[in-house]
Amino acid sequence: MKMTCYMCVANLIILGICGGIFAFTGFDVIKYLSFGSTVAYRTFYAICAASALFTIYSLIIFKPYKGLK
Fold first, then answer.
1. Which helix (H) or strand (E) holds 3?
2. Is the pLDDT of residue 5 over 90?
3. Can you tell me the distance from the alpha carbon of 9 to that of 46, in angstroms, rounded to the nearest whole number?
4. Residue 25's pLDDT is what?
5. I need a labelling partner for 45 at 20 to 30 A (CA). Which of 12, 17, 33, 62 fits?
6. pLDDT class for 24, splitting at 50, 70, 90?
């Protein structure tokens, strides 16, 4: 479970970096890395959506910030 959380957060960080590059330069890194394949492009975004949902779920259920008061 811990490894899954790490992979999901890493996936979202990669998405954020690629989104920042696209926002500032106009170069779509994800489309470049998927060789222009629409299926691979959309699959990556679907995996990122599932990662975001799992990250929100794990933050609600496991409350990792509970002892930081």
1. helix 2-25
2. no
3. 15
4. 93
5. 62
6. very high
